[in-house]
Amino acid sequence: MELDLIWLALGIAAAGFFIGNGLKNFKNPNAKSFSEIFDDEEPELITENDVHDIIGISKEDAKHLIKEHPDIPHIKINNRVYYPRAKLRKWVENIGNE
Question: 22 is in which domain, residue-wise?
């Protein structure tokens, strides 16, 4: 009996969430859909410390990346190097074709 009440309470809470979310976005065509609410957006620019995860190289190699490949897409802001994620992936794909 107690388990049935827990499931009933969870069902009512979920229904309240969906109805509330629907009313909040009523007549708003630019609102996020349910699946977009839970999507984790990746940042457009990544730091030099995180580039090794994207490309699949070691941290030490990532430090020497600009020195050895000056054509890699990057920008410097306050002496920090940032890489545009999409352009970096395209650059890595194209470097194998050269």
Answer: 2-37
Residues 44 and 85 sit within 8 Å (Cβ to Cβ) = yes
Q: Are residues 87 and 67 in the same domain?
A: yes
Residues 77 and 56 in one domain: yes
pLDDT tens digits, 59-88: 888 878 778 888 888 888 898 888 888 888
Report yes or no on whether pTM surpasses 0.70: no
Residue 89 backbone dihedrals phi, psi, to 5 degrees: -65, -40
End-to-end Cα separation, the chain, in angstroms? 68
Q: Among candidates 94, 75, 92, which has minimal Cα distance to 83?
A: 75
